[in-house]
Input
Amino acid sequence: MANQKLIISIGENIKQLRLAKSKGQTEVAGALGISVAALSKIENGQTDINISRLAQIAKYFDVAINTVISREETSSLSQEVVEEIAELKKQLIEREAEVMKLQKKVIDLYDKLGL
Output
């Protein structure tokens, strides 16, 4: 019974995320590679959802998986703050990629110098 309540809650959260982004079921279902009927069953708590699908949905809506499970994370934040956080995450990912490239260059230089 508790599991069913969680499934219903997750479905409601997904629906709220979809509505907050002004997306229709057809658009979201297409992006997720599932049928509209399957998305509808998820949103209505009629079907269980696995972790890979949760991850896919979180990625699509650009939120953490925890947000899909429990909307508490974004409910207290304004849309502006959420968008700023998303932009900062994007910048962080870009910087991490730059750091990795620089680390590779340093390693290559050490190899060339025989250190």
